[in-house]
Amino acid sequence: MAEDDNGSPPREELPIIYRDEYIVVVDKPSGLLVHRSEVDRHETRFAIQILRDQIGQWVWPAHRLDRGTSGVLLFALSQEIAGQLGRQFEAGNVEKRYLAVVRGIPPATGSIDHPLTRQRERHEFVGEQSSHEAQSALTHYRRIAEIELPFAVDRYPTSRYALLELDPQTGRKHQLRRHLKHIAHPIIGDATHGKGIHNRFFAEHFSCPRMLLACTQLAFNHPVDARRMQIKAPVSGEFAATLAQLGWTAPAQ
After folding, report:
1. Quick one: fold of 16-121+133-245?
2. Which residues are annotated as catalytic?
3. Considering only CA atoms, which of 13, 24, 70 is closest in space to residue 229?
4. How much is the average pLDDT of 1-23?
5. Phi-psi category of residue 28: left, alpha or beta, with phi > 0 → left and psi -120 to 50 → alpha
6. pTM, entire model
């Protein structure tokens, strides 16, 4: 946080990974909403507002990360650039890579090809037809590390967990969280799609109450000169500390 000259409370700032006159990329912390939401009306902190105040100009998010997800978040510095970036996301020209800690040990590699119904926002009409239509959704994953701990967290005498690298091919809402739940390997710390007993174990045993999901890499074409951009953000904070306690090393980005 930056301290104001007038002695007022320090102004919150976001770590900027890359910036030019057209785009800015930040490393969003877990627990921060990207923008104002009807679902979380009581919240007063938003990445858009923090970044706008930080750099002194308007910003437009090119995509979004869930509140609990940390990592690479791309903003445009004009509506025109935001539209160009949005079209890249829609066309599937943006590569996204995530890291997640999950319950259980899935196969070494795999693909989750499971359509997802569109999740309705609270402000939408209940009778809206599109909210019930399943959309194609595909996620590739690779297991990086695994561990079996001598703790009876659930009904077994030991508990097993794994570190996965995730490569979503589509961008459905909560896709990674819902896909991993679908294959019975939910993300640790996911209060909606995970399992509370394992979430509490990590919060108490590893001092890590956050959701263990982070966007570590984003690749896209620069909206002006079309050069391929590859922006990376290694996990940090509680996520990195938890990996260290498990004896795991995140893959080099």
Report:
1. Pseudouridine synthase (3.30.2350)
2. 66
3. 24
4. 79
5. beta
6. 0.89
